[in-house]
Amino acid sequence: MNPSSSEPAPFDTANPPAIAVRNLSQSFGERWAVRNASFDVAAGSLHGFVGPNGAGKTTTLKIVCTLLEPQAGTVHVFGQDVVLASRDVRRRIGFMPDHFSMYRRMSVFEYLDFFGAAYGLTVSHRDQVIKDVLALTDMYTRRDDLIAGLSRGMQQRVSLARVLVSDPDLLLLDEPASGLDPRARIELMEILKELQGMGKTIFISSHILAELAELCDSVTIIDGGRIKFSGSIAALLTHGQEHPTYRLRVAGEWPDFAQRLGALQGIVNAERIEESNEFRVSFDSAVCDTNLLLRNVLDVGVPIVSFNEEKRHLNEAFMDLTTGGFE
Amino acid sequence: MFAGTLAMLHRALRLDARLLRTHLFRVSFALLMYLSLLYAWASSSLVGAPGLRLFETMTYLNLVLISLAGISFFATAITEEKEEDTLGLLMLAGINPVGILLGKSTSRLLGTILLLLVQLPFTLLAITLGGVTIEQVLAAYCSLMAYMVLLANVGMLCSVAYRRGGTASAAVLLFLIVYFTAPLVIRGIQFGLINGAVIAPRGDVDRFFTDAAEWCVNISVFYRLQTIMRTGFAESPLDNQVQVSLAGALAFFAVAWIGFHHFTRDSKISTGPRVEFLARFIGLGRKRRPRPGPRPVAWKEYHFVAGGLPVQITKFVTYGLVTGLVFWAADRYYNYPLAYGGQYVVWAMLGLIVFESSMYASVMFHDEWRDRTLPVLAMLPVRPSTILTSKMLGCAPALIPALFWLLVGCAIWPDGLHELVSCLTLPSRWFYAIVFLLFLTLTIFFSMVVRWGALPLALAVMAGGAFVSSCCGWPILGIMSSVSRETGSTEMGFLLVDGVIATLIFGLQYDVRRRLEIASSQ
What is the pTM of this model? Predict the structure, then answer.
């Protein structure tokens, strides 16, 4: 039951990525939670980690944040091994688990003060940092409130503030938006954008790709413990498409247009979309390019109203890549 | 109603049957019985009535285990549903309060009854060994069963009335203290009042106290078992204790049923008057509370587990008042010299130290489990051993008030200073402290392993350990006596035993640290 191995590219040690995962495997009994996973997260990026429930996201996150020792493979955070230099790694990261880890009998200020002290900050430094993180998370007015009395969204903000108290370079957020109402979600996403602007690297896990699509620069998709995709959102949209595909809209009725398109040089497929005035056309990029395609299409003599590249919907790409554990 | 009850009972029994620990517990219980049988057989040539001795051991062991089950197992029946926020779901599923109460309590009662049933073959062997009759066996089991049913329903009521398992367990413990000490307390008060000439001997009030004490003795399982163990016992198995226990159980069940909706209306732990009260309390105390220093975990434990300075001052004053009350009552009502008062204060404070430290040990990791804060605690850039030490250091100042009044008691008690010095210098005295440390470490260990009932579990293990030691401790006693013979002092033998227990403590502490790392990743 060993996972198959492949040789991923080694990372640049002079300018290491925020996270470099290489051939990572972890099993619980007979079940593999993560199998031979390899991916990078660039420093300063906002990287999404997406997968269905039980895909292995939390296990990977726990290994990255030093809570779990990997059975096979390596994980480096800013070039430091998470097993060999776990204490140094812990100083550079902030982890927010998928559940609220709160001392409910403390006030918001006391909670943050406690963690500030645990990270060795002086009293004056703590005062300034707590003031800043409370302002950032819009919780300053609730600083003296008891945590147990806060709403779920507010507890999530306090949890994020706690992560920020130690001023980590890398934030690891496990499903931070789960259970939040739409407003709280949007506000959380805005805070994350702001944090990225401050130079933080953010690694955020979620099982909803659409939630991360607008937020993230890059994304890693995991399913059944295996990495299915890792790269930019733009690359994800065209991932798996063999040939570039365009959508044409014509003026008037041209029932034989698909046939006429199919006869052009480099066209691999042309079809009419459901008896409408729209046609889908795919071409072989080795033979033809977009300019040539458009010129050839115009030469056919049919009036073209619109000509757009057809990109897959994110959810479509996600569904194609994942099986939801039914592999 | 019955469909819901049966569904819950079915679920509970299936869950119970699937858990390995249930079977391990039953096997270990049977092993304990087997050991006591072997012990009775081995000692049969030395003492008379080995069957009675075996039966006595088994019965009192049962009494202890049923009491522990009452504190942990029965007291958490409903609170565990509250803590997991599933009580509302059960009610939404159409299961009415009686269904929930019966479904939750019956499975637990059955589980405990199974433990009693597993002993039957051994009990019958006790009759064969001699010294005990079938009437005594029947009466003892009737008495224990009635006590179990009573305790199950007391636990059920507490579990309905309180939101947290810990509070419900504490309430059952309080009930047990009152139940077992009531005759002694009533007689003590009666004696004091007569001695202080407050009431006339053989007057109405005196008679009332005598009757009350008598009634408490009659309904107490402990005194009933003592009666049953007497040679020539031939009473009915269904005496006062059984009847009152069953009637009491019924009454407690009725109160739990009637009050179910009232008590569980707002079962959510995060809100409610308690939180509002705490918010006000914290708001009041914060100005006086120092900021966390170089040991923030210790700071957290001291202020949020031990209660901080306000609680310490309250304890200091309360214990002081109790101490003063003891001296005053000893002088006024009991004609005891001041020295006796000092002795009582020492013992009372020692008891409080034991109680308080046990409570702190039992919640050391329980709160972290409950609030799911172990991962963030483990993520701090400190070693697990530092976290453990800080937690202990944070709770230690909470014992200062009791320790202070203990020293006051020692100063007044003429032998106090001598006793105190001997406690510090003699290994035979260290033995008690080191056994207690073992108990505390075991409690901390269980607070990491189980969600509820770390303290009763540690007590059960210690009771089992003491029982096994009394049965199989001959080699240890042999080593102790040979060491003592060679050195001419019994202290060396004790030093050896102390060393063995200390090694066990270090081993357990190492395991707690290891588990802290594992638990944080789960």
Answer: 0.73
